[in-house]
Design a protein that fits this description.
The protein has 16 helices and 24 strands. By secondary structure, the chain is of the alpha+beta class. The chain folds into three domains: about 10-205, Histidine kinase-like ATPase, C-terminal domain (Heat Shock Protein 90, 2-Layer Sandwich), CATH 3.30.565; about 205-355, 2-Layer Sandwich (Ribosomal Protein S5, domain 2), CATH 3.30.230; about 390-560, 2-Layer Sandwich (Ribosomal Protein S8, Chain: A, domain 1), CATH 3.30.1370. An eight-stranded mixed sheet has the order 5-4-3-6-2-1-7-8. A five-stranded mixed sheet has the order 9-10-13-11-12. A four-stranded antiparallel sheet has the order 18-19-20-24. The protein is elongated, with a radius of gyration of 28 Å. The chain starts with 9 loop residues before the first helix and ends with a helix.
Length: about 575
């Protein structure tokens, strides 16, 4: 039987096209704000309900639209930014495809109210599923308000795959935050159900806006950079090597004012920091790249998140050199003044004061571990669980001990991770473990999106012994931690936990177990943590008491034996 070719209806075509542009509520927020920016607005208010699923309202004081233009703007491929294909070579506006309003209205119910000063009254348009149902005169001051209701109401399959509200709201906060960073001089207000999530005043500088999104603990340890080459102007801020994160989520890039994602720039940053980074750590960065529009192609992704560069090699080298130049100046100051880098004023060029960090008191990668960190487990047998052979640490990572005719080697991180996992799992099932109240509670300033997530999981953290309390809009205070990790760097442990938790899909039923795994990993000993003999014996004894001591929670082995037989084969005695 032949397969017949069908001609899709306009409604179906619109919904399919909408899927490319509007993947989630944050996508709609982005498209509407970009339209406001392109309209010349210097004040933009965003209101959402149910993380954008029930309502997204974006109101601006931009130029507004004439009645006929407002009607045309709802059709597919209509735009004020392009006239023909050659205009793509010089495009500098954020929007240009002419798909935003048509794509959004294809999968929602939309009210548009707009007023342009050339006419005596404004215009109101109501659409459902991309079809205009009402047009009438309306009153409004100059600008445009777009209200999107019941997003994906007519595409239930797409709504079903949305993440839980906290995750979708986090995406919206990040989206608005990036636009606030790249558009100084524009006031941004973001609210959910009358609760303020983000506010950037017109006079707020770039570093302060970065603080709003990435958190004060990141922005306070950033260095200003700047370089100008034949093709690229690079400006922005990068973190000191002593202030890194376990992922690249704090790397934000803009090209000619447009946010984009770039493995090229991430690799360039890593190359600049390579010799100064602890394994598994990455710098934070906010980079602004300016170049001739003819040097790039921004039309390679429906959401404009990817950009092609004609000369990738030059851009990568320019970024590496810009970062290294900034650090070279710091190093020279250290050499000239003859004291540690801590407290130095960081400059991005001769005479250009960028930032002062007076809070760092340790060298980049010094490790401290109190002797009381691992206490021997009391038992009738004392250390009798093991035959007391020689024990020593190798490479700050592994514990080796003699066991008769074998050498037993333990991965200290994997072993401690297993111990903590079983402690936290037991706590989640039977009640919080023994906690240690902090003499000096640790304040943590988070990004706006991380703060949303912490509020969601605060109770779960409490069940594991992490007592975290809100302390302002995006700040939290750690009052107590599980006693078993009381001598770790509490602030770093909790920050890294939150960073990991922010990546979870909190709608899944097993997310609590994922949080337990994260807490175990981040609280465990790390490579480079030096242990005394009693600490090593205590860890091995704790591991021996675990119900599943053979692997860490991720399945990696905690130990293995090198037998006499293996050694004899290595030395060719057999």
């Amino acid at each position: 039987m032949a397969n017949h070719i069908n001609i899709l209806t306009d409604s179906t075509i619109g919904k399919i096209a909408a899927g490319e542009v509007v993947e989630k509520p944050a996508s709609a927020v982005k498209e509407l704000i970009e339209n406001s920016i392109d309209a010349g607005a210097d004040s933009i208010e965003i209101e959402v309900e149910s993380a954008g699923q029930s309502l997204i309202r974006v109101a601006d004081n931009g130029a507004g639209m004439l009645p006929k233009d407002a009607e045309i703007s709802c059709q597919r491929h209509t735009t004020s930014k392009l006239k023909d294909i050659s205009d793509l070579e010089t495009i500098r506006t954020l929007g240009f495809r002419g798909e935003a309003l048509s794509s959004i209205s294809a999968v929602s119910k939309v009210d548009i109210t707009t007023f342009n000063e050339e006419k005596s009254s404004g215009t109101h348009i109501y659409l459902e599923s991309g079809e205009i149902l009402k047009i009438r005169p309306a009153g409004r001051s100059k600008g445009t308000t777009v209200a999107v209701r019941d997003l994906f109401y007519n595409v239930p399959a797409r709504r079903k795959f949305l993440k839980k509200e906290a995750s979708e709201l986090s995406e919206i906060v990040n989206t608005v935050g990036r636009l606030a960073i790249s558009n100084p001089g524009i006031e941004f207000k973001l609210e959910q159900e009358k609760r303020s999530l983000l506010y950037a005043a017109k006079d707020m500088d770039t570093l302060a806006r970065i603080s709003l999104i990435l958190g004060k603990d990141v922005s306070d340890h950033m260095v200003k950079i700047g370089s100008l080459s034949e093709k690229y102007k690079i400006t922005g801020f990068v973190s000191r090597p002593s202030n890194t994160r376990r992922d690249r989520r704090n790397q934000i890039f803009f090209i000619n004012g447009r946010y984009f994602q770039s493995k090229l720039l991430s690799d360039a940053l890593y190359g600049a920091y390579r010799s100064m980074l602890e394994r598994g750590r990455f710098p934070s960065a906010v980079l602004f790249i300016e170049t001739d529009p003819g040097e790039i192609d921004v039309n390679v992704h429906p959401s404009k998140l990817l950009v092609k560069f004609k000369d990738e090699r030059s851009l990568k080298n320019d970024v590496i050199n810009a970062v290294k130049t900034s650090f070279d100046i710091v190093k020279q100051q250290v050499a000239d003044r003859g004291h540690a880098e801590s407290g130095e004023k960081i400059v991005s060029g001769p005479g250009d004061l960028a930032h002062c960090d007076d809070n760092v008191s340790q060298t980049e990668f010094s490790y401290t571990l109190k002797e009381s960190f691992l206490r021997p487990v009391s038992s009738d047998r004392g250390m009798g669980l093991f035959e007391k052979g020689d024990i020593f640490q190798i490479g700050g990572c592994y514990i080796a001990r003699i066991k008769g005719d074998r050498i037993n080697v333990t991965d200290q991180h994997a072993a401690h991770e297993r111990v903590l996992y079983e402690v936290f799992t037991n706590a989640a099932q039977k009640g919080a473990p023994e906690v240690q109240q902090l003499l000096f509670p640790e304040r943590i300033d988070l990004s706006a999106s991380e703060a949303v997530v912490v509020e969601k999981v605060m109770k779960d953290l409490g069940s594991l012994g992490f007592q975290v309390e809100a302390f302002g809009e995006k700040s939290f205070v750690v009052q107590a931690v599980p006693a078993i990790i009381k001598d770790r760097d509490v602030k770093t442990v909790v920050q890294d936990m939150i960073s990991d938790i922010a990546e979870l899909n909190l709608s899944k039923t097993e997310y609590v177990d994922q949080i337990i795994k994260i807490a175990s990993c981040r609280g465990a000993l790390k490579a480079g943590d030096r242990l005394g003999r009693e600490e090593m014996w205590a860890l091995l004894e704790q591991l021996e008491r675990c119900s599943l001591p053979f692997t860490c929670p991720h399945g990696r082995p905690t130990q293995f034996d090198i037998t006499l037989d293996e050694m004899e084969k290595r030395f060719r005695r057999k």
